[in-house]
Amino acid sequence: MSPEGEALVPLLAAFEAAANESHITRAAELLNLPQSTVSRRLQALEKVVGVPLFHSAGRGVQLTAQGRDLLARIRTPLRAIDEALADVKANADPESGLVRFGFPFTLGPVSVPSLLADFHVTAPHIRLRLVQGHAEALTAQLQGGSLDLAIVIPAPLELRSFALGEQPIALYVSREHPLAGRSHVDVAELADETFIANPPDYNLRSLLETWCAEAGFAPRIAFEITEFETMRSLIAHGLGVALLPAPETTHPGLVGIPLGGPSLHTRTIGLVAATTRPTPAAERLRAYLAEHAGRVIAASAR
To answer: What transmembrane ranges does the database entry give (predicted)?
Structure first.
């Protein structure tokens, strides 16, 4: 809204109150303002529009024809402003506010739902708007203000985060794969394998390419896919191997094999708040997750 528009809002509020009450004093009482302030605002609005909006009617006031026309035009936007302000106030309430919370696909089936269910017991009236995404998408939404809080893997360097734990990355193959019986596998041994991977903007894809480059080869990628459950199904059907975190639900067709070699094959799990000041409801969820999420996530990674 322009500065001129912002300046008109209190004038229009005084105008609507006086029009509804047909009385300046009652309008002032309704707005909890001195009568002189309401009168000045009405005079200022009439100066802006250039025509009289009221005429005297006994001890009260009545709208002129121009005043009736203006009232009809402003009622809808004024109601929208009132509703917007009420929504913002309600969303900031520490007991019943709204929290826009993001989390990664790899913690979706068990860990995060379990945490949110426990949080709901302690704060049953706080509303959650949930978003799942990969690290870059969640970070962008935190920076843009469309998320209040998120669990991000790996924790972004450009935002302050609280470390909840580490997420191990292992090799996943089908049960019929020649490597399925191994206790561990060095990345260098995978040079001849066919990989199933996320698109290039995913962190796991970056880690795959980095670790393979360190081992002296570029991975041969046959399938690119964003959805992890479908990726695991492709692996179980023998269509390739992948470097992934442990699944949170049972996949009988998969075998996970720890990775060996010089690199530490883990990712930091970060709890990240938006760059804006958190609402009381968002701060309640942040404090709860900081206290409880590490234990749950660590258990899911074993």
So the answer is: none
Cis-peptide into 154, omega within 30 deg: yes
Give the DSSP H or E segment for 290: helix 280-301
Same domain, 249 and 211: yes
> Is the CA virtual torsion 275, 299, 247, 189 positive or negative?
positive
Q: What's the total number of domains in the chain?
A: 3
- For residue 130, the cross-strand partners are 101
DSSP 191: T
**84, 36 contact by CB (below 8 A):** no
Neighbours of 11 (CB within 10 A): 20
Phi and psi for 225 in degrees, rounded to 5? -155, 145
Complete DSSP assignment for 50-105: TS--EEEETTEEEE-HHHHHHHHHHHHHHHHHHHHHHHHHHHT-TTT-EEEEEE-G
What does the pLDDT look like over 10-55, one tens digit per residue? 898 899 899 989 999 999 998 899 999 999 999 999 999 899 999 9
pLDDT tens-digit readout, 259-285: 987 678 999 999 999 988 888 999 999
Q: Which residue's entry shows tokens 């059907």?
A: 237
The verdict on 22 and 50 lying in the same domain is: yes
Q: What is the CATH number of the domain that holds 221?
A: 3.40.190.290
Q: Are 276 and 159 in contact (CB under 8 A)?
A: no
Q: Could you give the C-alpha distances from 143 to 138, 215, 235, 286, 289, in angstroms and in order?
A: 9, 35, 35, 17, 20
CATH (domain of 24): 1.10.10.10
| Residue 154 lies in domain | 98-163+268-301
Tell whether 158 and 176 lie within a shared domain: no
| Domain match, 21 and 82 both | yes
Q: Which of 91, 108, 132 is the last residue of a domain?
A: 91
